[in-house]
């Protein structure tokens, strides 16, 4: 909660002054009370006793209630110094960036820039930006390249340290607003030129290339744990790089916390999932990847359907052995193979996927739900997205295993026929609960 400390200090001075005045007035009231009669005669007049003697009836007289006037004066005094508090929630700045709603003085103390107002004008939307060598404990911080928004062309190791703002923080979410560094080498698709490295949290694979719009979740554990560091390693070589990573701190108790062990976490009935450095025309499947992708199961949904993204920039021609040359082209939305001599065109599943694969628990083609577990597959790879092996045509794939979780794995080498693999891009839609899916 944000507090205006200058108002608090002024209010404390007024309270001390009020106490002094009340103490002085109290002495005067006691002197007046000493001269008052503590008892007074009843309005009914004297009563006659049984013996004929006059007997007076007395009752305790209440002092007049002078506190009402005093309370009214104090209310008028406090109304002049109202203490305004508001939550430090996420807010939208004037330039479209997300920030944190804080008091103007606190924003300056954090080294941020005020970008618009929030909390009915009592706060400002504070945008905090850090670069190489920075340390931050602020929520919604932006990690940018040197000289941002200009691009960076040089050799450097640019590191930022993340510190929890509260012991209750369990995760960091990294949103790659901009992420464009040099891609992998083209023999084995390893990130040897430029690298993005995360250390101090759960194991995170090294990535490179273009990852605009993608994200990561970093598990930090409960309590005061070690800081997490984010590092961009660049190799120069005349490449224009730019990055802007929004860092959000996720509390342990929030509903937005990802499931443990999930590098990526998606919410909503539908969405899109892409491997790192995926691009249908220029991207390359990265080697040495091994991580989980999780999707929150929404209320009243029991299954999930995956489909390869529409591919307008299709790849190489299918050889004549698979059809008429020039009539069908290989899709780039799912090209995931490894260590093969020939480029794979058809779908591959199960034990045929030993080096690079995407795991979807008990995957089946849409409309062909299995009656026995052995009729579904867990690993998919090849040049076509299909849960049935040796298929040239793509298909939607459905899974009812809960929680909804995929595993993406690639090894450290690519065969001569695999160096052009793009990775994968999948659209997902959760399926409503029916007797067939429960």
TrEMBL record:
Listed transmembrane segments: none
Keywords: Disulfide bond, Signal
SUPFAM superfamilies named in the record: Spermadhesin, CUB domain
InterPro entries: CUB_dom (IPR000859), CUB_metazoa (IPR058698), Sperma_CUB_dom_sf (IPR035914)
Domain spans labelled CUB: 132-250
Nuclease found in the keyword field: no
Gene3D superfamilies referenced in this protein's UniProt entry, alphabetically: Spermadhesin, CUB domain
Disulfide linkage: 191-208
Signal peptide segment: 1-23
Identification of the protein by name: Uncharacterized protein LOC112462113
Species whose genome carries this gene: Temnothorax curvispinosus
Name of the encoding gene: LOC112462113
